[in-house]
Amino acid sequence: MLRKTGLLALTLGLFAAPLQAEEHSVLLMGQGYFPSHVYPVVGDTVIFENSSIVPMSATATDASWDTGVLQPGDQYVLEVTEGMTRTFVDSVAEESLAEGVIEYAAAPPLELERNSEPNHASN
């Protein structure tokens, strides 16, 4: 009986434990973002890091959120919230074609964590 009670307590404890938010990274690369689409869930964070040699930003297309000007090497952490504008552009360089999407409402198109596995079983 003690064994079942202990297992039940452990199981309930796992469900009661708070879920930890995940971090997703977007590199600002001068001419664009990498990756240009990220797939967090509400409550996760997106870390924007300028890995280029020029100042850049990531600004929601409706200007509801903005990283501000990020100098090379700078970072900005954005919390993903319900209803936030998902699309973003570089508002620093007007001629920039950089575009990105924070797709928190849909799952990634592939199981990204399985990308290193072979596509076909060897015969």
Concise structural overview:
With 123 residues, the chain is an alpha/beta fold. The chain contains one helix and eight strands, in the order αββββββββ. 12% of the residues lie in helices and 24% in strands.
Task: List the main descriptive attributes of the protein structure presented here.
8 strands, Immunoglobulin-like, four-stranded mixed beta sheet, alpha/beta, 123 residues, 12% helix, globular
Average of pLDDT:
83
Output the CATH class name.
Mainly Beta
**End-to-end span in angstroms?**
49 Å
Number of helices: 1
Q: Please state how the strands of the largest beta sheet are arranged side by side.
A: 2-1-4-6
Number of strands: 8
Shape: globular
Count of spatially separate domains: 1
How would you describe the overall organization of this protein?
- This protein has 1 helix and 8 strands, in the order αββββββββ.
- It is an alpha/beta fold.
- The protein has a 4-stranded mixed sheet with strand order 2-1-4-6, with no helix packed on it. It has a 4-stranded mixed sheet with strand order 3-8-7-5, with no helix packed on it.
- The longest helix is centred in the N-terminal third of the chain and has 15 residues, at 2-16.
- It is globular and about 35 Å long.
- The model has no long low-confidence stretch (mean pLDDT 83).
Task: Please give the structural blueprint.
Blueprint: H1 2-16, E1 23-28, E2 33-34, E3 37-38, E4 45-50, E5 59-60, E6 75-79, E7 87-89, E8 99-102
Parallel strand pairs: 1-4, 3-8
Antiparallel strand pairs: 1-2, 4-6, 5-7, 7-8
